[in-house]
Amino acid sequence: MFRALVVRKDEDGGKTHAAVEEIGEDRLPAGDVTVAVEYSTVNYKDGLCIGPGGGLVRSYPHVPGIDLAGTVERSDDARYRPGDKVVLTGWRVGEVYWGGYAQKARVKADWLVPLPAGLTTRQAMAVGTAGFTAMLAVMALEDHGIKEGPVLVTGAAGGVGSVATAILAKLGHEVAGVTGRPETASYLESLGATRIVAREEIAETVKRPLESETWGGCVDAVGGAMLARALGQMKYGASVAAVGLAGGTALPATVIPFLLRGVNLLGIDSVMQPCANRLRAWERIAADLPMDRLEAMIRPAVLSDLPVLGGEILKGQVRGRVVVDVNA
Ligand code: NDP
């Protein structure tokens, strides 16, 4: 038997309920590797899947948790042996497949990444999906060239924003963090932000398609009006890595920043990234993310905290990264 956060749906297909339950190993789905999970995290999608699912969950009962880190317990795949430490993000685990909010997970070997040297399973999950995505965004900006000047990070106090801020600052970039929570200013400065931009300053509707050339690059976790506004403030030839939609899915922008300033809009998808890119991103995380700053982002949690935390992350109220110790 093992413990898991199980989401069930009323028999009439109505409301969902999430609670910690003991379940038997015979209930684990098919897969070639069984992982003794140590840590998972809370991401925006987890908030959706702990609740009604937002269209992501295909069948109930469901175990959410879009990422996990732990130790291989059993393996039918030659690449992994019992005792190996592994990390998993993406591949629709925790959405379509049972995820990391459990003491055990059975998954496909192809979805796993060996724990990068220099990281513990707890640190790997402090990074988790949000931090892995932040690294992919930074790598995409680098591939297109980060221009002179500050790099804008939107949703800065959230998971993606916090890790992006710390990585960019460590790489020597000036970072301007946009936040709707002025009380997080000293936290963002401790991660390396040199400038704090109030959300209202940049979330207003686009009035002019082009404004002063201000930002040398942008990691955008918010989308919507904020992304549209940022596009018009980019330096000539600079890039925006669009990661998220915490502020909405509509994009009230014009084509002018692309035509007259050669701005690049780079879409970042962490879910289906090929394995080689995953390994490259995790190696970069181990090398370029200051671990003391990562520690400052962590809010510890246990399985029974998750129903409340799922609601908080959907309201944009979580700061940094929630690390769930599934065995506590
Ligand atoms: P968090 O909730 O931790 O952070 C989002 C931040 O956005 C909040 O902390 C808040 O920052 C800001 N925010 C929230 N609501 C609004 C709003 N209405 N208007 C403006 N700003 C808002 O989430 P994550 O950082 O984990 O994820 C951010 C986004 O990225 C989500 O949409 C998520 O689904 C997406 N994502 C995408 C991935 C991909 O592969 N493309 C992978 C991982 C995440 P502040 O308080 O500082 O203003």
Amount of helix: 25-40%
CATH topology of the largest domain: Quinone Oxidoreductase, Chain A, domain 1
What's the tally of helices? 10
Strand content: 15-25%
Key descriptive features of the protein:
328 residues, globular, Rossmann fold, Quinone Oxidoreductase, Chain A, domain 1, 7-stranded mixed β-sheet, single chain, 2 domains, 6-stranded parallel β-sheet
3D architecture notes:
The two termini are 16 Å apart. Helix content is 30%, strand content 24%. It contains ten helices and 15 strands. Strands 3, 4, 5, 6, 7, 14 and 15 form a seven-stranded mixed sheet that branches. It has a six-stranded parallel sheet with strand order 10-9-8-11-12-13, sandwiched between helices. Helix 1 (44-50) packs across helix 10 (306-314), helix 2 packs across helix 3 (159-170) and helix 2 packs across helix 8 (275-288). It has helices spanning 44-50, 121-144, 159-170, 185-191, 199-203, 224-231, 256-261, 275-288, 291-297, 306-314, and strands at 2-9, 16-23, 33-41, 67-75, 85-89, 104-107, 113-114, 151-153, 175-179, 195-198, 217-220, 239-242, 264-267, 298-301, 321-325. It has 328 residues and is α/β, with parallel strands linked by helices. It is globular and about 60 Å long. The protein has two domains: 2-115 and 295-325, Medium-chain alcohol dehydrogenases, catalytic domain (Quinone Oxidoreductase, Chain A, domain 1); 128-267, Rossmann fold, CATH 3.40.50.720. NADPH dihydro-nicotinamide-adenine-dinucleotide phosphate binds at residues 43-45, 129-130, 133, 155-161, 179-181, 199, 221-222, 226, 243-247, 268-271, 313, 316, 318. NADPH dihydro-nicotinamide-adenine-dinucleotide phosphate (NDP) binds next to helix 1, helix 2 and helix 3.
